[in-house]
Design goal:
Blueprint: E1 2-11, H1 18-31, E2 37-41, H2 44-56, E3 65-69, E4 72-75, H3 92-116
Parallel strand pairs: 1-2, 1-3
Antiparallel strand pairs: 3-4
Helix pairs in contact: 1-2
C-alpha cells in the first residue's frame, strides 16, 4: 500500500519539479508493490500531480494507493479521485480562490457605487 499523507510539515516541491516527483513516487511504488510505503507532503500540487499521472498513464491505483489527512484515509479510484474528500484535504487553494473572488466582488461593488455618485 502506498499512502500519501497530507500534513503541514511534509515535503513540498516547486511547480517546476512536482510532476516529475509524482511520477517518481508512483513508479517506485509500482516496482515494490508488495511493500508498504508512506510519503508525507504538504503540497496540494504534488497530490494533484499524482492524481494526474495516474489518469494520464491509465494506472489503476485501486487497492494499493490511498491518501491520508489527519485520521481520514481515502482510497483512490482509477480516475485519481479519493473515495471521498476529507475536510481539510487539499482545500487551501480553493479557500484562497474563494476569498479572492469574494474580495473582487466586493471591490467591484464599491467601485460601481463610487462611479454612480
Amino acid at each position: 500500500m502506498l499512502t500519501i499523507e497530507y500534513i503541514n510539515t511534509g515535503k513540498s516541491y516547486s511547480d517546476f519539479e512536482v510532476e516529475e516527483k509524482a511520477k517518481e513516487i508512483i513508479d517506485t511504488h509500482l516496482d515494490y508493490l508488495n511493500q508498504d510505503m508512506i510519503y508525507r507532503t504538504s503540497s496540494e500540487n504534488l497530490i494533484n500531480s499524482i492524481r494526474l499521472y495516474i489518469v494520464e498513464s491509465k494506472i489503476n491505483p485501486e487497492g494499493w494507493l490511498q491518501f491520508k489527512c489527519q485520521d481520514d484515509v481515502m482510497a483512490v479510484n482509477r480516475f485519481g479521485n479519493p473515495e471521498y474528500w476529507a475536510k481539510g484535504f487539499c482545500d487551501s487553494n480553493e479557500k484562497r480562490i474563494s476569498r479572492m473572488f469574494i474580495a473582487q466582488i466586493n471591490l467591484r461593488k464599491e467601485h460601481r457605487e463610487i462611479n454612480m455618485k
